[in-house]
Design brief:
about 350 residues; alpha+beta; DNA primase DNAg catalytic core, N-terminal domain; Dna Topoisomerase Vi A Subunit, Chain: A, domain 2; binds zinc ion
């Protein structure tokens, strides 16, 4: 289940609470990706404070001030942690049961650390170290716009990452502490970095991918993924929708998200879990269109998922792929967008799908 704070953020983001929090700042203006305003943390009237639409965070590209809404309230209204939390809690109507300043602080440090590292990884992908990897992605048929939009990165290794963070002025002790807390040093062959955000959009983990492999071996975590274990991948992008497509594989989900015909979430090789369903249900998702691919293993996962969805009182349907395609990534690469649109018209109800397989 999402934490209380995550729930509060999800609800407030859905109500455009940014406007309430930041609307009175000088030079405040909204745009497609969020809003921008003059920064209250340094003396300047130019709008340099970025307020994201899809996550409860701010960032000033001049003085480097960054944090989440709780941090903002504490810094600008002189509230302590509990008072700031109370303010967000009452605005959202969600009661707080687990208010621990230390956990909030740890998570905030984690997201800021991962955002910095990921900025490094995206630049690496588009420069010399990432050249081969980028070429491998292009040779699978993806264009520049797709790769950029997917926010992929290149992971050069833990030492290079540590050096970069130190060069950015992060204190050595902090970097070491965060590395030992969240980093997993394996994943050496999994050089493509996929950012994994929680349901409120905060960057909580980094997944590594080896583009030369298929199925679950293609993925290995670069960081500890505990905070997002129960969050379907890209759930934060499905705000305001009750219906989502569910695919296996994070790369596949990103790809479908770029096509943007319908909201999509991704799950790992363990299938759709009860935890995923709880988080998605809180998020407002009611209907899951399963597109987990072909083969006996995939059929079993689809069947299990249908059972769990029904048990939770939610709706399931299935989007079958033509038999020769193992998964959605293969289908999209071998066909064209119009074929994918056709798939959307051939969605079967869970009953139909099960009946066809039981007969
Ligand atoms: Zn600033």
């Amino acid at each position: 289940m999402p934490t209380d704070l995550e729930k509060i953020y999800v609800r407030l983001l859905g109500r455009n609470h940014q406007q309430e929090l930041f609307g009175s700042l000088v030079e405040y203006s909204q745009h497609a990706q969020g809003a921008i305003a003059s920064c209250p943390f340094h003396a300047d009237s130019m709008p340099t404070l970025i307020l994201y639409r899809d996550r409860p965070e701010y960032f000033c590209f001049v003085c480097g001030a960054r944090g989440d809404w709780l941090q903002y309230l504490q810094n600008t209204k002189s509230l302590n942690f509990s008072k700031a939390l109370e303010e967000l809690s009452s605005a959202s109507g969600i009661e707080i049961r687990d208010q621990q300043a230390s956990i909030w602080r740890e998570n905030l440090e984690r997201t800021q650390f991962l955002e910095s590292a990921h900025t490094f990884f995206t630049t690496q992908l588009w420069s010399a170290p990432g050249r081969e990897t980028l070429h491998a992605v292009f040779s699978r048929g993806y264009g520049m716009e797709e790769v950029e939009g997917m926010a992929l990165g290149f992971y050069p290794g833990p030492n290079e990452t540590r050096d970069y963070l130190l060069s950015q002025g992060c204190p050595r002790d902090d970097v070491d502490a965060l590395f030992s807390r969240v980093w997993i040093s394996a994943a050496e062959a999994h050089r493509i970095v996929i950012p994994y955000r929680d349901s409120a959009g905060r960057l909580m983990g980094l997944m590594g991918m080896d583009i030369s492999r298929r199925g679950s071996v293609a993925y290995a975590p670069i960081t500890d993924m505990t905070p997002v274990l129960e969050t379907p991948f890209l759930l934060y992008r499905c705000r305001g929708h009750e219906e989502v497509i569910v695919v296996e594989g994070f790369f596949d989900a990103l790809l479908l998200d770029r096509i943007a015909l319908k909201p999509v979430t991704g799950i790992g090789s363990d299938g759709l879990t009860t935890g995923h369903l709880e988080t998605a249900a809180f998020f407002g998702i009611r209907h899951f269109i399963l597109c987990l691919g072909n083969g006996p293993g995939k059929d079993r996962k689809t069947r299990d998922a249908i059972g769990r969805i029904r048990e939770r009182g939610l709706e399931a349907s299935v989007m079958p792929l033509p038999g020769k395609f193992g998964d959605i990534d293969e289908f999209i690469r071998s066909t064209c967008l119009d074929h994918f649109k056709k798939l959307l018209t051939r969605i079967e109800s869970d009953h139909e799908w099960l009946r066809a397989r039981n007969s």
